[in-house]
Amino acid sequence: MTLTRDGIAYRVACDLPEGAYVNLGIGIPFLITSYLAPDKEIFIHSENGILGVGPVAAPGQEHPDLVNASKDYITLVPGSAVFDHALSFTMIRGGHLTHAVIGAAEVAANGDLANWRMPGQKVPGVGGAMDIAVGIDNLYVAMTHVTNNGQPKILTACKCPLTAPRCVKRIYTDMALIDVTPGGLLLREVAPGLSSSVVENATGAPLRIADDCREMDVPLTFNGVALRC
Amino acid sequence: MIDKTLATCAAAVASVFDGATIMIGGFGESGVPGQLIEALRQQGATNLVVIHNGAGFHDFALGGLIKDGRVRKLVASFPNYPSATAFRERYLNGETALELVPQGTLIERIRAAGAGLGGFYTRTAAGTELAAGKEIRVIDGRQYVFETPLRADFAFLKADRGDRLGNLSYRYAMRNFNPVMATAANVVITEVEELVAVGALAPDDIHTPGIFVDHVVKAERHPRLFEPRHQERTT
Predict the structure, then answer these.
(1) Contact state of B226 with A64 under an 8 Å Cβ cutoff
(2) Mean pLDDT of the residues in chain B
(3) How many angstroms separate the CA atoms of B47 and A86, rounded?
(4) What is the count of structural domains for chain B?
(5) DSSP letters for A193-223
(6) pLDDT for residue A13 is more than 90
(7) CA distance to partner chain A, nearest, from residue B197 (Å)
């Protein structure tokens, strides 16, 4: 059994601590906002100048000037602030945000990240990914473990152009939670019912298995949304 | 009496010349001076270099300007989303060039120009192909990339409210690139949703002081620059 995209987001959300200031990327990372525990005060940053992003606006309640980096119409939470791009990237590049969760095409065993130009992509685009990768200490990747064709995305060395070298600290996938350590990749958790050897076979780099490696604590569903499949 | 207001967007963009470099504010649909860009499409200047985070949408505003074949080069961080159809077509045909700049580097290059700085060193893009050919300097044991200031002949901005002195106030995420671009162009033209009397904007609420602004024109939000998903689904 593996996690759904929402399941990956749920598992990341469990690890974000009270007081975190978090930049969330497009895709799976954005789903994390749905799974943050209401008793933890966590501020979500959007690169276009918002700290304190709330849930997506209800239909009919959209405001034209409240959008996030995914161009979704969003709301603000109490205590939010808005500012210009220079200050927004001062927060990012200056190391003021505590966490970032970002998607990836490939992650290497040494923490190299590739997520701005996929194989065959004709028009390049980088957005804020390179700034986020160098500036935010706890850089977490949230992605599927393998490509749609079943090829590993966690590799000994990235094949796609790098976003930044040696920046990823932790990888959350539908199969596993893996830490990037000075000694290489460390398998910390596996999806419920999955063996570590299945994860190893789907990974294109050597994995060490943590002494306390365990099954992820992710329920089957949350508020009616499937977290496992 | 200082009066930076102009009656029409056409008057505001009249001085744009062939080959000009134009900064355009906005992120997504927010803070984009859509009516100024439409006026520029009518005005006719061509062979333009445009500095903007994205590449416009479909066939209107910046998307339309690109589709019309008027943009020689785009300087952007994120031009590769599905609705940037005009740029995609012209870029792949080799008709519009692209200088791809990481978003934080893009805003800081503009800020540096406006602040009178000769550039800066950033860790962003170090060790990647976007640093190719650029000066690298090791500071405190880490690699930094030298980036140059980015100026323009014109800046097209959008604000919520403005007065005849050019003082501007933005709303929510409309701010984005606008206040920084206001500092980095020879001629700064702003589209405002509301024109207010001098003194109506409290000093604390002025995000761009009028010293940076040359022209202010009142215009309604471009009708296609607000398309909520639920409306898209029903139309």
Answers:
(1) yes
(2) 96
(3) 29
(4) 1
(5) T--HHHHHHT-BS-EEEEEEEEE----SEET
(6) yes
(7) 24
Share of chain B above pLDDT 90, in %: 94
For the stretch A15-40, pLDDT in tens is 999 999 999 988 899 999 999 999 99
Q: How far is A199 from chain B (nearest CA, A)?
A: 29
Q: Which domain holds residue B102?
A: 9-114+150-220
Which H helix or E strand runs over A93?
helix A85-93
Which residues from A are below 8 Å from B28, CB to CB?
Answer: 48, 67, 71
Say whether A18 is catalytic. Answer: no
Contacts of A57 in chain B (CB under 8 A): 228
Q: Which two tokens stand for residue A158?
A: 């990235």
Give a yes or no: residue B139 inside a domain. no
Please report, for the domain that includes residue A101, its CATH number.
3.40.1080.10
Amino acid A70: pLDDT: 85
The domain that holds B99 is classified in CATH as 3.40.1080.10
pLDDT tens column, B46-101: 999 999 999 999 999 999 999 999 999 999 999 999 999 999 999 999 999 999 99
Write the single-letter amino acid at B52. Answer: H
Q: Which residues contact B23 (CB under 8 A, 6 or more apart)?
A: B50, B51, B52, B110, B152, B154, B155, B156, B177, B181, B184, B185
* SS3 state of residue A103: coil
A83: nearest CB among B124, B175, B177: B175
Residues from chain B that touch A64, judged by Cβ atoms under 8 A, are 29-30, 221, 225-226
Q: Are B25 and B31 in contact (CB under 8 A)?
A: yes
The interface predicted TM-score (ipTM) is 0.96
Torsion of CA B232, B32, B107, A113, to 10 degrees: 10
A42 touches A20 (CB < 8 A): yes
Residue whose pair of structure tokens reads 């994995």 in the numeric block: A207
Residue of B29, B122, B177 with shortest CB distance to A67: B29
CB-based contact A162 B176, cutoff 8 Å: no
The verdict on residue B131 lying in a domain is no
CB contact under 8 A, A86 and B171: no
